[in-house]
Design goal:
The complex is a heterodimer of chains A (about 110) and B (about 110). Chain A contains no helices and 11 strands. In chain A, a hairpin with a 6-residue loop joins β7 and β8. Chain A is globular and about 40 Å long. Chain B is about 0% helix and about 55% strand. In chain B, strands 2, 5, 6, 10, 11 and 12 form a 6-stranded mixed sheet that branches. In chain B, strands 3-9-8-7 form a 4-stranded antiparallel sheet, with no helix packed on it. In chain B, strands 1-4 form a two-stranded antiparallel sheet. Classes of the chains: A mainly beta (about 110), B mainly beta (about 110).
């Protein structure tokens, strides 16, 4: 596609529920990144994929968070047993290779846990 | 480990005046440096990057930034501010010898006063 697409744009869920957030990167971009942005903060790194494998998942806050990219294109961020503290905007970005030509971000999914 | 500092939460400047948004960084290897802008309810938009070469980098919308290795800084500048430049600005760094993921500062809110 022309840009990075994230769905849904908004998600409201109840505490304790499971949610999935989807990211469709720019076609041909091998690297995909997930970030979380809380109100008034900069984006915080969560996980980075190169192809199908997670090259660095050191930013995932705990084992309730998991992400997959089974075919090296679309990625899904999964959050189990959601907590109110998980409320944030979840951003996805993609890049060619090592990102020397820049990283393109999607518009994000605003997750609200009530 | 890499990190970014944006020492000013808020910068106010009169329309037509020059603007500077400050950024300092820390990486163990060669730095790859980026500036992004975020408008309300929008994703991050790429402004410019420094990978190698000339220390003065020119980017979108008339913005430029100067890489200063001795001061580990990458300040964003524009000769004449526009009201439409009012937004949230983020500096980001990645270690050229490390993983591809970007690390962001906490952001600086720029307000251009008519």
């Amino acid at each position: 596609g022309a840009g990075v697409s994230q769905t849904p744009s908004n998600k409201v869920t109840e505490k304790g529920k499971y949610v999935e957030l989807r990211c469709d990167p720019i076609s041909g971009h091998t690297a995909l990144y997930w970030y979380r942005q809380s109100l008034g903060q900069g984006p915080e790194f969560l996980i980075y994929f190169q192809g199908t494998g997670a090259a660095d998942d050191s930013g995932l806050p705990n084992d309730r968070f998991f992400a997959v990219r089974p075919e090296g294109s679309v990625s899904t961020l999964k959050i189990q047993r959601t907590e109110r503290g998980d409320s944030a905007v979840y951003l996805c970005a993609s890049s060619q290779g090592q990102g020397l030509h820049g990283y393109t971000f999607g518009s994000g999914t605003r997750l609200t846990v009530v | 480990a890499q990190s970014v500092a944006q020492p000013e939460d808020q910068v106010n400047v009169a329309e037509g005046n020059p603007l500077t948004v400050k950024c300092t960084y820390s990486v163990s290897g060669n730095p790859y440096l980026f500036w992004y802008v975020q408008y309300p309810n929008r994703g991050l938009q790429f402004l410019l990057k420094y990978i190698t070469g000339d220390n003065l980098v020119k980017g979108s919308y008339g913005f430029e930034a100067e890489f200063n290795k001795s001061q580990t800084s990458f300040h964003l500048k524009k000769p004449s501010a526009l009201v439409s430049d009012s937004a949230l600005y983020f500096c980001a760094v990645r270690d050229g010898a490390g993983a591809n993921n970007l690390f962001f500062g906490t952001g600086t809110r720029l307000t251009v006063i008519p």
